[in-house]
Design goal:
By secondary structure, this protein is α/β, with parallel strands linked by helices. The chain contains 14 helices and 14 strands. The chain is globular. The model has no long low-confidence stretch (mean pLDDT 97).
Length: 404
């Protein structure tokens, strides 16, 4: 298929707006041709994952764009980096932290906003239904597509910032309406009351993601009062266990008013119990607890603060959240409650992507399906998956405490 560029886009590609824009447009045009896009589409925002340090190439590309004078032309938020800029001593590998800070600064120099969160949908001015955007970071992509009804394909490092600089993305994949239709259904009604329990959603996400890969699942039977935090946990786990970039929840998400006729899997409690066993090491001793992957929302932080009334925690307890959420917690006095109880609040990064936990810690509890999926490979720990209440109870007891 021939790619058609507007006169403005052709001028950007030709260098009329500077070498930085031309470089970014070459990347976008190259991806558009690979994906057989007929044209480019204007985007209203971008979320950049490239600010997470993965080696010298990360710095080289960002510095090249800065040196060429590039600037983003749409509102652009930044994903987590490899350092906590508010608490610089938290990252144990100072060489990694220094490289991480340098990279994070380079993206700010490009005009990006220093949000440093994997959950940009928790910030003000999030995209509306039908808006074309270019978001990277798997859980941000799946939330924007599914819960907000915005349109983004899966964009990886470097393509994300090039879209922000040009204000364009290939009109292909999930940018197009025909690619957004559900392909396989999951009947969740046999789960019954368990669907009102927070653990249902990371377990369901991991289970469905592992089955569908990059297909588009349609969930039937989810309660209408399901929260955004539940959907966040589901989407993050589904995107980690598989390649899910869009899901539909019948009667809940904006593109699923009714259930389509599709091949259907029935989900029951026994299947999710097996997923919990798969994600959890069979241990009783714990070294630490880590929650907030994706970054904990303000509501989740309040729920944690409520649970902390009582005996002091006996284990190191880490809460990862956005700096904007931390600022709100500080303003409301909740941050003091968390820290006084022994919680270490981490911002700008996450405990499974950089060296924050002690290297000799081997057993760590979490309430996140995404953290439980990635941490064993990333930081060599055995995870135990539990609810927020179970995480707090375990941190108090100094060992694994499960309700059932």
């Amino acid at each position: 298929m021939t790619l058609h560029l507007t006169a403005e886009e052709a001028a950007m590609l030709g260098g009329r707006e500077g070498a930085g824009v031309a470089l970014a447009m070459r990347v976008i045009v190259g991806q558009a041709r690979i994906s057989d896009a007929p044209r480019l589409v204007e985007i209203t925002s971008a979320h950049v994952d490239s600010c997470l340090y993965h080696g010298q190439v990360s710095l080289d590309f960002a510095h090249r764009l800065v040196d060429l004078g590039a600037q983003v032309r749409v509102p652009t938020t930044l994903n987590v980096g490899s350092a906590d800029l508010v608490h610089p001593g938290l990252v144990r590998d100072q060489q990694l932290a220094a490289a991480g800070r340098e990279l994070m600064a380079a993206y700010v120099d490009l005009g990006c906003t220093s949000t440093f969160t994997c959950a940009p949908y928790q910030l003000p001015n999030r995209p509306a239904f039908g808006e074309h955007i270019a978001w990277a970071e798997s859980n941000a992509i799946v939330f924007a597509n599914s819960v907000l009804g915005a349109r983004t394909d899966r964009y990886g490092d470097f393509l994300d910032v090039c879209a922000a600089i040009t204000g364009r993305a290939p009109y292909a994949g999930l940018q197009t309406p025909e690619a957004r239709r559900g392909t396989v259904a999951f009947d969740c009604r046999p789960l019954g009351d368990f669907l009102h329990h927070e653990l249902a959603y990371p377990l369901l996400g991991h289970y469905i993601g592992s089955i569908v890969g990059a297909e588009i699942p349609v969930l039937v039977g989810i309660p209408a009062e399901v929260t955004e935090d539940d959907l966040k946990a589901f989407g993050a786990a589904a995107a980690s266990a598989g390649g899910v970039a869009l899901f539909h929840v019948v009667g809940v998400t904006p593109e699923a008013p009714t259930a389509p006729e599709l091949p259907t899997h029935v989900v029951d409690a026994a299947q999710l119990q097996r997923v919990r066993q798969e994600l959890s090491a069979a241990v009783t001793e714990l070294d630490a607890v880590s929650i907030g992957t994706p970054h904990a929302s303000y509501a989740e932080c309040l729920a944690l603060a409520d649970l902390l009334t009582g005996p002091r925690l006996q284990l190191p307890f880490y809460l990862s959240t956005a700096r904007a959420t931390r600022d709100r917690l500080k303003q409301d006095g909740v941050l003091d409650t968390l820290e006084d109880a022994g919680v270490t609040v981490v911002v700008d990064t996450c405990t499974y992507v950089t060296a924050i936990l002690k290297p000799d810690w081997k057993h760590v509890m979490t309430n996140s399906g995404k953290w439980a999926h990635y941490a064993p490979g990333n930081i060599n720990v055995a995870a135990v998956l539990g609810s927020l209440e179970e995480c707090v109870a375990s941190a108090r007891a100094g060992r694994v405490v499960l309700d059932a």
